[in-house]
Amino acid sequence: MADSGDEQVNSTRGSPFPITLPTVLCTPEPPDEDNLLLKTNSFISSESKLSLPSNLGTPTSPLKLSSPLSLPTSPSPFMKTSPQTEVRRSSESPQLPTSNQQFAGKLINNGSATGNPRNKCALQPGHSLMDWIRFGNSGKDLTGVGGRLRPVSPQELANHNTQNDAWLAIRGRVYNITHYLPYHPGGPEELMKGAGIDATQLFDKVHPWVNYDSLLAKCLVGPLRFDLPDPEELFDTSSHSLKSDRLKEPSKAQELVRKSMENLANCITPVRKKITSKSEENVKCSPPSKIMQSLIQSSDLPVSISRRAAASPTKNAEKADIPPLRYDWIQTTTKLTISVYTGALANPGGCARITEGVLLIEVATNGWLRTLKLVPEAKLQDPLQLRVYAESGKIDIIAQKVDSAVWKHCGEVTLGTASRVSSPRTVECRVVSSNVVTHDTVMLAVTPRSGPVVVPLGHHIRVHMKIAGSECIRSYTPVGEGWGPSEDSSTLSLAVKKYVTGSLSPQLTTLKVGNRLTLSGPYGSFQLQKLKAVKRIFFIAAGTGITPMLGLLKFMLSRSILRCEKAHLIFFNKTEDDILFKDKFDEISKEDSRFVVTHVLSDAKTNWTGYKGRIRIDLLNKIIGKDVQKCGEQCTHFVCICGPAEFTQTGLQLLRKCTIKDDCLHAFIG
Ligand code: HEM
């Protein structure tokens, strides 16, 4: 929200937009086809994640296109296909395009995967997603090791690092990506960056939403295991023998591994638990088999994945309104992760804490609050981490195990009945840092004392402080990960501008590490769903009114070029020294050509060559006008505006004059 003064700003008065305060969260809709490849989509992802064990057990079984476990039957809109695509058959061996072929057809090339995630290639004819699925179903062994699952040591993985023989590991699983290279929408060269290594971080940095486990189900070689002896020793007693010889006959060790993988498959095959009309139901997860237990050693890689359950509403009349909730769990020897799926773009908020040994998770979407209580198999401890994936609506709650071990169960999970969010929550926080970011603004980082809290994108919290006996309240939007001083997800960073005559900001800007303060929230009416079909987004901000835009900007730029073509920030400030995050914006615009920033100064120095003045129609028309005209019936643009109340009201009137429809506008007023 805008930092428009130092009073409690609740200025819905006169606003043409229905602002309901406090409103908590957004309206989710069922995932569309675009989302079918999203790794964390509530339905697809859970299914696909859970489908993996079946593939582990029956490596040769085809992908069932009609099953919810399968991939979409039509090419994803973010895959570039050509008319020839459909006539090519999967039996053709995949041809790796040469570097020139591949990159001549590049749609976008703004940098590398590590520098800039937006770097998509035109695929060669016959290499669409559909072609890949057909190829996978052709019966050809894509694992290169006879389709027999076997553990892989990092040393062995490292040996497979050429375009003709490339393996890669993600989240503890090793895949043979040789055949996938020409089908990779980011191009083979990008994918090769992960060859021979554990590419989890690289993968997550570029496109955490991609459902790699379904896409590469037929390429699974086996688990990555750090505790393995040299592969030569495990698979062949004669350490000097050739790789091909080693793989001819399965050794006893191989057989043992294969059987135990089948066991793993059995123990994690999903059992869908339907929550009855009873208010709560307990779900106990079944243990891995003994043989699996004996095979799981103490590495810090995911060693088992759970089943999940669906939380359904209680009263029939309300059923339709309540978004479904599902969860999975996954463990390493040191951590337990509970993943809660709220639905694509559901924009969840939530918190987690450990109380008397019990892990309590609260998730709110669309005004509904659901609780998930876990009495863990063994002791868990703080700090908890809470991560939200905006595109898919997945929340990961990561807890530390007190003792390193592989658990048989995650424990007993109780899903509470959905209830209406009646009032915002209040949390006590501790100041962990306070850094001056401009001459009058301080970045205050606080951590909730009970455990991590997530504020939905575009929503805000209120700071409460007792000053001279009366309570002062002020609204702030936490700047989100990547913008504040800390990457720690349990920290909320607030950009506090000091108003000399203000009642609260002088206190807030002088707080010291260790000081306490009270927050309440979340508040706001922004619905992330509104950005579903948006390709061009404009952020019009003044001063600290930039804060609600930051998370949205990051979200939009995390989308592929087909979903986000342009993000334009028009940032109004008094002087150059007042501009928050100036370097960061410059950096992003250098890295991602879709992002443009236009600074407008009302009190610029004489040497300022940029725009001057205040918000006005000619400026908006010039910057936004042509993009808006491009829109047909359905708007593919969206404008967000936030700043002092007067700025926002004037801006809204001008935007309407620029023919921006109300559906394509959101004013952050807190
Ligand atoms: C780990 C190394 C990898 C790197 C460096 C990498 C890099 C990239 C890049 C730069 C893009 C273009 C991004 C965009 O504009 O959307 C991309 C897209 C894509 N990659 Fe990868 N990739 C890697 C691994 C994988 C794997 C293992 C898979 C799955 C099998 C995969 C599947 C995809 C898909 C489906 C897209 C299109 C995503 C979209 O449009 O949203 N990538 N990749």
SSE topology sketch:
Layout: H1 42-57, H2 99-104, H3 129-137, H4 154-159, E1 161-162, E2 165-170, E3 173-176, H5 188-192, H6 200-206, H7 212-215, E4 220-223, H8 231-235, H9 243-248, H10 252-268, E5 273-274, E6 281-284, H11 290-295, E7 304-305, E8 309-311, H12 316-319, E9 325-331, E10 335-341, E11 349-355, E12 358-365, E13 368-376, E14 380-389, E15 394-401, E16 411-415, E17 419-420, E18 425-438, E19 441-448, E20 453-454, E21 460-467, E22 470-476, E23 492-497, H13 505-508, E24 516-523, E25 536-542, H14 547-557, E26 566-573, H15 582-591, E27 595-601, E28 611-612, H16 617-630, E29 637-642, H17 645-657, E30 665-667
Parallel strand pairs: 5-8, 25-26, 25-29, 26-27, 27-28, 29-30
Antiparallel strand pairs: 1-2, 2-3, 3-4, 6-16, 7-9, 8-9, 9-10, 10-15, 11-12, 11-20, 12-13, 13-16, 13-17, 14-15, 18-19, 18-24, 19-23, 21-22, 21-24
Helix pairs in contact: 1-10
The structure holds protoporphyrin IX containing FE.
Protoporphyrin IX containing FE is lined by residues 37, 78, 113, 117-120, 180, 184-186, 190-191, 193-194, 199, 202-203, 206-207, 210, 212, 215-216, 560-561.
Outline the biggest β-sheet.
7 strands, mixed
CATH class of the largest domain: Alpha Beta
CATH superfamily membership of the largest domain: Cytochrome b5-like heme/steroid binding domain
Number of domains as seen in the coordinates: 4
Tally of DSSP helical segments: 17
Summarize the amount of helix as a percent range.
10-25%
Which kinds of small molecule does this entry bind, naming each only once? protoporphyrin IX containing FE
Molecular shape:
globular
Strand content: 25-35%
Distance between the termini: 5 Å
